[in-house]
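tool_call: predict_structure(chain=1)
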Amino acid sequence: MLIKSGWKNLFPLMWLLAALSVAGCGDDDDSDTGTDTDTDTDSDTDSDSDTDADTDTDADTDTDADTDTDTDADTDSDTDSDTDTDTDTDTDTDTGPVFFEETFETFVSGDPDGQNGWSATPTVPFEWIANTGGTPSPSTGPNGDHTLEVGTYLFTEANGGNLGDTAVVESPSINLTGATAPEVSFWYHMYGSVMGTLDVDIDDGTGYVNVWTLTGEQQQSSDEPWDQGVADISSYAGSTVTVRFMSTRADAFTGDMGLDDIQVREPMPPAVEFSASLTDPATDQPVSLFDMSANGPTSWLWTITGPGTVTWESGTTSTDQNPIVSFDAIGLYSVTLEATNTVGNASLTKTNYIEVMDIYFEEDFETFTGMYPNGQNGWISSPVTGYSWQVTTGTTSSTNTGPTGDHTTGTGTYVYTEASSGVTGAITLLETEPINLTATTAPILTFWYHMYGSTIDNLAVEVNNGSGWTNELTIAGQQQTSSAAPWEESIVDLAAYVNETINIRWVGTRSTSYYGDMSIDDIVVLEPSPPISDFYASETLVGLTQIVTLTDTSLETPTSWLWIITGPGTVTWENGTTSTDQNVDISFDTVGLYTVELQATNAVGTDSEIKTDYVDVQDICLLGGGTSINTHLPIEPYYGYSFSESIYYSSEMCGAGTITDIAWEHNGSSLITSSAEPIKIYMGHTTKTTFASNTDWVLSGSLTEVYDGNITMTQTAGYINITLDTSFVYNGTDNLLIAVDRNMGTGPTGTSSEFYSYSVSGNRSITQYNATANQDPATCAIPGSLSIYMPNTVFSYL
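tool_result:
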């Protein structure tokens, strides 16, 4: 494929529109004094972490204004079916600086002692371990790290040791010169029925002093979100300190605690986020609101607006951190949370976040007790022994089958078929009380199911209107691949039973072994509203032939979809998807702006969302789009010397051709001493897919030097383009290896400037950086650190 390099002349405008304004993070004693103030008025999904839903019921024109001082890459004009404006106001001031940061992403799995200057004791048997994924012990520890789920974190392995044993991990020295009110921020996960104590201690040379402590189980499942801890260390301003995290073991193996994403910094105002236990409740049904804000807010104010009256339930009020509310009228309600700490306040509004539904039947099993559901809340189950429906929380009694917890919280109640008893072909029934569908027009049944187990047979849904049972749905075979896999929703059309009274039953059929527990939860029979169509694209600035994923986020459970894409060229439907799939993969053969429309339909009606000039196809090859920083790729500007190598797969590249330019995405952080960084760039073909170890460098003698000069960074976020001294002829078949050697000089450079990266599967990058040690690309004698990141990169071809 031949790609021209003229696109780079569009940089000043194009990349300004696409840029993100993110406060820079330092590594070790890297000081970030940047100030980030953002005020957003959004109606779409942009580079902020707020996703709001449009409400569309007529055929009018809606032009969504998106004004964002972060210069988000969301410049589309949306034509919807009515006039709405989703307001998302999020004001925060990053006061900086960050004196120290550790994400553990460069740590090799195993003993953290000696990695990145950290020390850890003991090494066995009760110890801190660097890890990815879940911990080895069941029913304890997180499923993955705090930020990425696939990244690296530390945890204490409680399989060994005795009651009262301690494991300690200690940071390198941290210079707090210039600090006024520093704090330690970190994220922890403490799931396990016999959980010990986590302590944070500070030493300024006079001995360790405890500044934070927490004892006992805090999460209720492995997949429950991490919590943030914040410890005030303002009394240590101006000192040089070390921070240690000490875990004290309780009296069982179910005490694996996780630690991740540590910062020592000046306090920052809250970063507001929240969730709801239900977003589609019935009238008078309690809904729990959960504050998920970062940076230690100390007070909260909830504001809820909509067509009816909001009642604060269970003694909670609008100023509680996690209140409980109910609604007296159906319709859409917007929720705002304002959170405040000692530094300032910030707010987040989720427009039309909760829709109160006209519900005819609902069951979440939360009031069920005992082993069997028979007779509870009007339900009938048979048989009540042997292969039967049973009530439970947490996991089912059999290994390698069933979920880890209920659908909504992971800690609630659900029902499942217990396959440890019974014979092949056995049947078990679970039947509702009568449900009156008088005055309905297009009712539906929705429920959530989890079917993990290698010998699952099938689960059927049958309806009886008095004339006998009719099968309306059969789900056959294993549907999930692990206990931790998410529950799935099923929707059954009940329009054939309008104005009738019906019973619904779930029929489980046993297969050949106990690996067949099938679970259901959160059953609702309701009258749906017309869809509220919405979607987002994985990328809105793409290169020719680059695949873009369009994801439906429409509300009101649409059952069919139609994508219409118009622009200057031909659209190809990729990976077997078509224009009528819910989520689609597409590519483009011609540069220009493309308009995307999604028509979403359910039994009640159709709604259309149009995003005008939404996808901008450029004559480039763009890889990445991630927002991770402090990954030391392609260079680490804070240190005097850095060297990196990254592997770009041929399947990601845009075919064979002559590469004339390369560009990396810079975050625009402030530069203190110099804006020009001397670098050398090497390129070469490789059959490598990952780096096997921290010494598995590719020496420069087998690569081609394509650039020797400067990379100039400014305080404007965006891609920085480099025209190569020698163009590289890429064959399009092998993977491409790029090495970047930076030689700024001895010592820190005083800049917290960073580049954006995206996470990948496997160690496809290796980095090395130091204040004084300069890597020689010809010998690569200095070991590096393996990385699961790749820098966001744009290639220009001749």
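agent: The helical segments are 11-18. Proceeding to next step.
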